[in-house]
Amino acid sequence: MLYGVDSVFPVVPVLIILAAWALAAWFINVSVGVYFPGPWDTFALLFQLMGGRPLFRSTLYAHLFASLGRFLLGLVSATVVGVSAGLVMGYSKSVREHLYPVVSILQPIPSVTWIPVAIMLFGIGNLSTVLIIFMAAIWPTVVNTVAGAESVPDNYKRMAGMFRLRRSGVFARIVVPHSVPYILNGLRISVANAWRALVAAEMIAATGTGLGYVIIQSRWNLDYTSAFACIVVIAVIGYVMERIVFRRLEYVTLKRWGMLAA
């Protein structure tokens, strides 16, 4: 089932990654003479951190919740603005002709390049990080939503005319439901972009808490094992969001709108 929830944990890929990681750590430690944390050291520290061991004056959970809070605020803001703007541009040809070129110009700009602008506007802190996440997440949502809204078949519109639906009715009953699969595809890309942008932004603009903040501080303190532990947490959270949370949301949403077969 395309939109079902995949309940099988990817054991084989994880084992391959762990084996390659262990082999790389052994080779670097032996041949280069530089300490490279392997899976055993990393997971041993990770279990200690999960047990409450301090990590740069906070717990692992405090850093994780700080990152998730910034991530959700930026992602939700980008989703609301992106879906709204995309539906309007996709539905109205005149609006699309005037505004979509702006999207085409801004979309290719990497989100991390906005970090100096964010710091200039908001300084070092949460607002700067949220702005970077917003810029990373909004464009895939806008582009996919526009594609969904403007791809409504003409026979749907003719049918709406036969039933004498007003423009607001056509928008709510035809354009929005037809755009749902496109919106979800855009959100899938936006979630991945936003999660990556979060870590990059926290390395530069966060203060005191956050997974990205811990990674960059670990680098300056030569505490590479803590950095690897946070990388593992980032990978696990990303997998959970993509394969469990988002797929479940996608399944429920398409079922609610009666588009699961599509």
Plain-language structure description:
The protein is built from 10 helices and no strands. The chain has one domain: MetI-like (MetI-like fold, Orthogonal Bundle). Mean pLDDT is 86; it is low at 1-7. Helix content is 78%, strand content 0%. With 262 residues, it is mainly alpha-helical. It is elongated.
Overall average residue pLDDT? 86
The description of the largest β-sheet is: none
Q: Give the CATH class.
A: Mainly Alpha
Looking at CATH, the homologous superfamily is MetI-like
Strand content: under 5%
**How much helix is in the residues?**
over 70%
How many H/I helices? 10
- Principal-axis shape equals elongated
As for the CATH topology, it is MetI-like fold
Question: Any low-confidence stretches, pLDDT <50, length ≥5?
Answer: 1-7
Order of helices and strands: HHHHHHHHHH
| Proper CATH architecture | Orthogonal Bundle
Quantity of strands, as a count: 0
Our count of domains comes out at: 1
Gap between N and C termini: 12 Å
Structural class: mainly alpha
Radius of gyration: 22 Å
Condensed summary:
By secondary structure, the chain is mainly α.
